[in-house]
Design goal:
Radius of gyration: 21 Å
Strand content: under 5%
Helix content: 55-70%
Structural class: mainly alpha
Shape: globular
Number of strands: 0
Number of domains: 3
Order of helices and strands: HHHHHHHHHHHHHHHHH
Distance between the termini: 55 Å
Length: 372
């Protein structure tokens, strides 16, 4: 790849690398031991992004790392087989040009139909809806954006346990890579892309629904409505301060109330977006938080689903970052920077006496925060 100087050919190589990572995905996480939860797609995109940053002449180590990973065990292609058969049966060979041919827009009726299938249906239901939309000439990226909007709706309305964000967070980041591939590249197999996104997200939604909401559970993330009146009394700028402070302590009820109040009182979104980015960046030893934030920013900026979907993304984001279990909640690294910069209005922090390490997904326990 380094020896190929033609930028057009390099783009084709990037598209193929992403394709190889995207199609290697388990058909389901339910009762399956072997899974890769989208990691191959994430690494393929990381290689592409870093190459654009450092240049092809310096990118050999990236590809020595990523390309062998794409070929390593497990290799899972049942969804590729399913989409190949589905598209061939419906389009009789015309599926290769669907991305170029499909220029129609997704209306509210069909968006609602797809959302209902994602939230309440099974894989067969979702597959049928996507196939019908493709046959109706709907743009691939609009179908993709609607699938991601449905994910955010599930997170806001249905996710209740602090342990329920892990797998579906991977599904979201994987779907972001697929959307990146759709937006930036051309490839003959791209009509398969929405099926992959929908299958992964729908599978995670089904798994979350195995466990009915239990407000008495210690894993219950809480209800922001209980603190909405408190948030509404805050000035808008203070709303963002309290949002960040609540996120640091994984206090989703207060953090969510701040977001709901902010969204209802102003049309400004950039400051809120930046606050959520900062909140995600403070979580150390858990790169899922930063990866999720990068995916959210890109999808929020580029979605075709409209302003309502964008606000739902912000609600889903705060629930993920303030409600989901972390590998650790230690903030030692960010405290070091705060101490160096000096604490002021631009560096929002939780007072030391309120800090506590409440990690954990059972993976990595950080050392306890020293209390004064």
């Amino acid at each position: 790849m380094r020896r190929e100087a033609d930028p057009v050919v390099r783009r084709q190589l990037e598209a193929q690398l992403l394709f190889c990572g995207i199609i290697d995905l388990q058909d389901t996480l339910q009762t399956r031991k072997l899974q890769n939860i989208g990691h191959k797609a994430l690494r393929a995109r990381a290689a592409v992004d870093l190459t654009s940053l450092i240049g092809w002449d310096h990118a050999d180590p990236l590809y020595y790392c990523v390309v062998p990973d794409l070929a390593c065990f497990p290799r899972l292609y049942p969804l590729f087989d399913m989409t190949t058969v589905t598209l061939t049966n419906r389009f009789k060979g015309d599926q290769w040009s669907l991305k170029a041919r499909n220029v129609g827009h997704l209306d509210h009726v069909n968006r609602d139909r797809l959302t209902a299938a994602m939230l309440h249906g099974k894989l067969a239901d979702v597959t049928e809806v996507i196939t019908d939309l493709l046959a109706d000439g709907i743009r691939l990226i609009e179908i993709s954006d609607a699938i991601i909007a449905a994910f955010c709706r599930h997170l806001v309305d249905e996710a209740w346990s602090s342990k329920s964000f892990f797998q579906i967070g991977h599904a979201f980041d994987y779907s972001n890579v697929v959307s990146f591939w759709l937006r930036g590249y051309d490839h003959p197999h791209q009509a398969k892309a929405p099926y992959f996104q929908a299958a992964f997200i729908n599978d995670c939604i089904q798994m979350n629904k195995f466990f009915p909401p239990d407000p008495g559970s210690p894993l219950w993330v809480g209800d922001p409505r209980e603190h909405r009146a408190w948030a509404d009394r805050l000035p808008l700028s203070e709303c963002l301060v309290q949002l960040l402070a609540a996120t640091e302590t994984l206090d989703y009820p207060h953090a969510g109330a701040c977001v709901e109040s902010y969204l209802s009182r102003t049309r400004e979104r950039t400051k809120l977006l930046r606050t959520l980015v900062l909140a995600s960046s403070k979580m150390q030893n858990d790169p899922h938080q930063q990866r999720h934030a990068a995916s959210m920013v890109e999808e929020w900026e580029l979605t075709t689903a409209g302003d309502g979907a964008r606000d739902t993304m912000l609600r889903a984001w705060v629930k993920y970052v303030a409600g989901g279990a972390k590998r650790t909640t230690d903030l030692e690294c960010v405290r070091m920077f705060e101490a160096s910069l000096g604490l002021n209005s631009s560096v929002i922090h939780t007072p030391v006496h309120l800090q506590a390490d409440r990690g954990v997904m059972g993976l990595t326990l950080a050392k306890p925060v020293e209390m004064p």
